[in-house]
Amino acid sequence: MEINRRPLIAAGTLLGIGMGGFVDGIAFHQILQLHNMLSAKYPPNTLVNAEINMVWDGLFHAFTWVVTAIGLSMLWKAGQKKEVPWSTRTLVGSLFQGWGLFNLVEGIIDHHILNLHHVVERLGVSFADWAFLAAGVAFILLGRTLISAGRGDEIGAHPSPAAVGKA
Amino acid sequence: MQNKPRTVLRYVSVFFLSLLFASPALACPLCHTETGKAVRASVFGPDFGFNFLVTLLPFLVFGGVTAAIYYGLPMPKRVRQKPMRENSVNKTKRKPWK
Q1: Is residue A133 less than 8 Å (CB to CB) from chain B?
Q2: Average model confidence (pLDDT) for chain B?
Q3: Considering chain A, what percentage of its residues have pLDDT values greater than 90?
Q4: Best mutation site among B30, B55, B56, B60 for testing chain A: the one with the most A CBs within 10 Å?
Q5: What is the pLDDT of residue B84?
Q6: Which residues in chain A touch residue B42, judged by CB atoms under 8 angstroms apart?
Q7: Minimal CA–CA distance to A74: which of B58, B38, B68, B66?
Q8: Which ipTM was obtained for this model?
Q9: Cβ atoms of A94 and A151 closer than 8 Å
Q10: Nearest-CA distance A60 → chain B (Å)
Q11: Of residues B58, B65, B72, nearest to A6 (C-beta)
C-alpha cells in the first residue's frame, strides 16, 4: 500500500496556521496589546478607535477559528484513511510549518506590504517585525526537518481500526 | 456546615444578578450612543470593503498553500531513469575508429 502523508501534513499545517493565529491574537492583540488588526490606520488612542480595532480583531479571530475548524476536520478524515501513517513527527512538524507559515505570510502582507499594523505599533517597522518573520522561517525549517524525519514512520498505530483492517 | 453550599450559591447568584444592573459599555458597535454610532460609521464606512479584504487576504494565501500541499503542485513528474551503468554505452570499450 502506497503511503500518502499529504492529508496529514495538510491538516497539521492548517491547524498550525490556526494555532499561530491564536497565539498572535491572544498574546499580542489582547494580553500585551502591542498592536491590533488596523492599529496603524486607526491608532487605538481613543475609545472609538479601540472599538474599531476590536471589531476587526474579532473578524481576524473568526477567520482563524474557521481555519482551525477546517484543519480539525481534515485531521479527522486523515485518520480514517488507510494510506496515511499516524506519525507524531509528521503532525508536529506540520504544526510548526503552519505556525511558521502564518508568521511569514501575515508578517509580510500585513506588516511590510500593506502596513496595516506592526508587531510593536508604537515603534513602527522595527526589529520586532523582522524577528516575527525570522521566527516564521525558523518554525518552517523546524517543521520541515520533523516532517522529513517522519518519512520513515510506517503505518503502525492508527486511530481508526477500521482503516487498518481487522487484526 | 450543611448551609455552606447554599451560602456559596447565594453569593454567586447575587454576583450574576448584579451584572444585569451594571453600567452598559458606552462604545460597543451595537450601542445607541454617540460613540457607538461613531464606531459603526467607521466600521461600515467607505473603507469596509478594503478592510475586509485585507483582513481576509492572508487566509486566502493559507488556503492556497494548504491546497497545494494536499493535492500537490501541478509539476511534471520526474522520470526515474535506470542507473547509468545499465543503460549507457561504455565509451571506453568502443573500438577506435580506423
Answers
A1: no
A2: 77
A3: 88
A4: B55
A5: 55
A6: 42, 48, 52
A7: B66
A8: 0.90
A9: no
A10: 6
A11: B72
Q: What angle (nearest 5°) sits at the alpha carbon of residue A143, between those of residues A142 and A144? A: 95
> What is the model's pTM?
0.78
Q: What is the pLDDT of residues B32-69, one digit of tens each?
A: 888 899 999 999 999 999 999 999 999 999 999 999 99
Q: Which of B62, B71, B72 sits opposite A67 (nearest CB)?
A: B62
Q: Do A51 and B35 touch (CB under 8 A)?
A: yes
